[in-house]
Amino acid sequence: MTRASSATATVNRRAEQRLGRGHPWIFRSDVTAPPGVPAGVVPVQAQNGRPLGVALWSPASEISLRLLDSAPDAVVDAAWWHARLGAAIARRGPVAAHTNAMRLVHGEGDGLPSLVVDRYDRWLVVQLLSAGLEACRDAIIDALLAHTGCEGVLARNDPAVRSREGLEREVTLLHGDVPRTIEVVEHGVRFLAAPWDGQKTGAFLDQRDNRVLVGDRARGTALDCFAYHGSFALHLARHAESVVALDISAPALERATENAALNGYTNLTTHVGDAFDTMRAWHREGRRFDTIVVDPPAFAKSRASLSGALRGYKDVNLQAMKLLAPGGQLFSASCSHHLDRGTFLEVITEAAADSRRRFAIRAITGQGLDHPEILTIPETGYLKGVLLEDVG
User: Fold this and answer.
1) Which of 136, 150, 225, 335 is the catalytic position?
2) Domain count across the chain
3) Strands (E), the chain
4) pTM here?
5) Do 270 and 371 belong to one domain?
6) What tens digit of pLDDT does each residue of 171-226 get?
7) Same domain flag for 129 and 255
8) Which of 107, 155, 277, 308 suits 49 as a labelling partner, its CA being 20 to 30 A distant?
9) Is 150 marked active-site?
10) For residue 295, what are the domain limits?
């Protein structure tokens, strides 16, 4: 059992107000009296002694406290984890009708700070991203096993944030066995996820709805920039005459080719190259595409890198617009948390102006149901996209 410790964390007025506005984080500078206990779950109180709830406590982290429950008498034990995880999993019901891979827990978006749980068919991949949460590992895994009946649980505890928590970065098996690759079925499209060594927890599950959106509208010749394993390209191939998956990584495109074969697609080819340089060269050659997807990695990995990232986003979208055939469609996305939706659209607008073409917005998109974005917790939302159509 994990019960709130008798050693209470006292926080200042600023932290109290932040919690009151619906954000669960309390920074080290706002803890006026830290609890003298190891990482785990502790009660939190205001400076006047008013109980504020119970939180995950990470002594080494800049984010020292992450609120779990605002009820002052909450007991964060096995039953608590079972109930909270069960509620999160139940919300994914509509997603499960279309795929065997989804995010079951989206951290703060599900009221479970610093916890990520992704399901790939009969296996789970988890990330425990704070020291306080790590102390609750056994109760979390037991609850997940009870709710899912999964055959294996893999911890992809390799993100850099673990180091800032004073935790080891590791990839380790927590239960049963997990294959090196797992076949994902997504709205009828099949591809292989790589839970042990792939990007994120094995695949980009957050773009599922956007892949379906663009795939259903695809036509003519199509281009998937920054294709990685070709998840967008596979959806494009359902309706486009031909698809080129472009990526700088030859091994990634080998997997894209394997995924195309898995679906029986013969209209998908790959090209190894830098997206910026390749699109410029193709434009000079007069090559054009009717449908283009631009889904780059996060250019802005910190606030300090944002200005350079904005130039990169504008340039890559401008090059895509130049490659787009008259009447064509462009879907552009950004997964940079530090680039907000408004600024992203401003960058796209600047690129459109420089292209000297008129683009109509057909859709503005975000994350799927299984990646909930909470209005009062902007950190839960990072993915944004826009579908454009050239109208002359």
Assistant:
1) 335
2) 3
3) 9-11, 25-27, 31-33, 40-46, 51-57, 63-69, 101-106, 115-120, 123-128, 152-157, 170-176, 182-186, 189-193, 221-225, 242-247, 268-272, 289-294, 324-334, 359-365, 384-390
4) 0.94
5) yes
6) 999 999 999 999 999 999 999 999 999 999 999 999 999 999 999 999 999 999 99
7) no
8) 107
9) no
10) 204-390
